[in-house]
């Protein structure tokens, strides 16, 4: 199924979902949009802190937005240097939810400037609502099989 079709289906599901799930999904999309914009400050604002990432057997914790921007700049530069142009959701399943926390099982792909898929990754994103704002609190990821 083409990614565009999945995106429309996801949008339709979000329309029928409880309000907290729709808000969490919007925060998840904002996270990816900010990454694709390469605006580290905007990306950092889509998160809640302390922010946790479990990746390749390591745990990274960022205490605040400024630290996230500073420590993510070299990682983003490496990603761009690898030929990455953008990322996109291949699938999103909201597996558990409450009015203040949603767990999303996602698969995202990376694409080069020609639109060729260069990798696919499965992750769990923990989205939380704090002070009436939804954001990504934690990401747990690994390469897809």
Short summary:
The protein is of the alpha+beta class and 145 residues long. Helices cover 38% and strands 46% of the residues.
Folded structure, characterized:
This protein has 145 residues and is an alpha+beta fold. Helices cover 38% and strands 46% of the residues. It contains 4 helices and 6 strands; from the N terminus they run H-H-H-E-E-H-E-E-E-E. It has a 6-stranded mixed beta sheet.
Question: Tags for this entry?
Answer:
4 helices, 6 strands, disordered N terminus, globular, alpha+beta, 145 residues
Q: Over all CA atoms, what is the radius of gyration?
A: 15 Å
Low-confidence stretches: 1-14
**Count of DSSP helices?**
4
Structural class of the helices, strands and pairings? alpha+beta
Q: What is the terminal separation in angstroms?
A: 18 Å
Order of helices and strands: HHHEEHEEEE
Give a count of the beta strands, DSSP E runs of length 2 or more.
6
> Overall 3D geometry?
globular
Give the helices and strands, then pairings.
Blueprint: H1 3-16, H2 19-37, H3 40-44, E1 47-55, E2 58-62, H4 65-81, E3 84-98, E4 101-112, E5 117-130, E6 133-143
Parallel strand pairs: 1-6
Antiparallel strand pairs: 1-2, 3-4, 4-5, 5-6
């Amino acid at each position: 199924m083409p990614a565009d079709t999945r995106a429309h289906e996801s949008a339709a599901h979000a329309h029928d979902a409880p309000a907290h799930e729709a808000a969490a999904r919007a925060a998840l999309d904002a996270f990816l949009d900010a990454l694709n914009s390469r605006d580290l400050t905007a990306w950092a604002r889509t998160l809640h802190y302390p922010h946790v990432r479990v990746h390749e057997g390591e745990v990274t914790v960022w205490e605040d937005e400024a630290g996230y921007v500073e420590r993510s700049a070299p990682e983003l530069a490496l990603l761009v240097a690898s030929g990455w142009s953008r990322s996109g959701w291949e699938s999103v399943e909201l597996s558990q939810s409450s009015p203040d926390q949603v767990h999303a099982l996602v698969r995202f792909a990376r694409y080069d400037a020609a639109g060729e898929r260069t990798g696919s990754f499965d992750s769990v994103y923990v989205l939380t609502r704090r002070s009436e704002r939804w954001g990504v609190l934690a990401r747990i990821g690994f390469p897809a099989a």
